[in-house]
Amino acid sequence: MNFKTGDKVVVIAGKDKGKEGKIIEVLKKDNRVVVEGVNIVKKHVKGNGQSAGSIEEREAAIHASNVMMIDPKTKKRTRVGHQIDKKGKKIRIAKKSGESLD
Predict the structure, then answer these.
(1) What pLDDT, on the 0 to 100 scale, is given for residue 67?
(2) pLDDT of residue 49
(3) Residues 66 and 89 grouped into a single domain
């Protein structure tokens, strides 16, 4: 998976298609990501002695194939490539502009 927490992505499929946001959490095992402001669901929270129960709205995970990175140069969606830099470290690059994503 080419995503990290804090990456700017755009949703390309599903009910929130076209929305942009930052990745809050990456679930590598399930190949899913949680994006802020996307796939909002209602979560029923049971009350305890100190607080009453309530219904919260929070972001749910979406499949990683339904999001694409945003190119920092063109501000459009792009695929992710990899390259070895001068220090021998593997970095992520935007396929459209060649700009570094790390």
Answers:
(1) 97
(2) 87
(3) no
Domain span holding position 41: 1-70
Q: How far is CA 74 from the centre of its chain?
A: 18
Which residues does residue 11 pair with via DSSP β-bridges, in sequence order? 67
pTM given for the model: 0.84
Nearest Cα residue to 62 out of 79, 92, 37: 37
Q: Into how many domains does the chain fold?
A: 2
For the chain, 102 residues long, the average pLDDT of each consecutive 10-residue run is 94 96 96 96 94 95 96 94 94 93 84
